[in-house]
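PepSY domain-containing protein
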Amino acid sequence: MIGACMIVPGAAPAQAGDGAVLLAQVVPRQGCLSRRDAIKAVMSGQARPLSDIRDQAENAASGEMISADICPQGGKLAYVVTVLSPSGKVAYVTLDAASGRLLNVRQ
């Protein structure tokens, strides 16, 4: 399941192998912040802006970010970023929301 509380401006929809277009959902992953709460977290300094996180997530998974959520993890906030590789593989990159430190990459 691909969930998203933030849609990346200017990002083209991902193409599935059979030519079907994958559409990002406009609701966050279960347990993650709503879009409104994610914006509040950024405005209050609890999370870095998505523009600061995007390049790091894309480089960590060698692809293009298609969605991102801010989720509570271990008493802190983390970005869970969905990245699509040029070959069509999906990876989930987790970064500390406050520092941007890479926490995990799951293929």
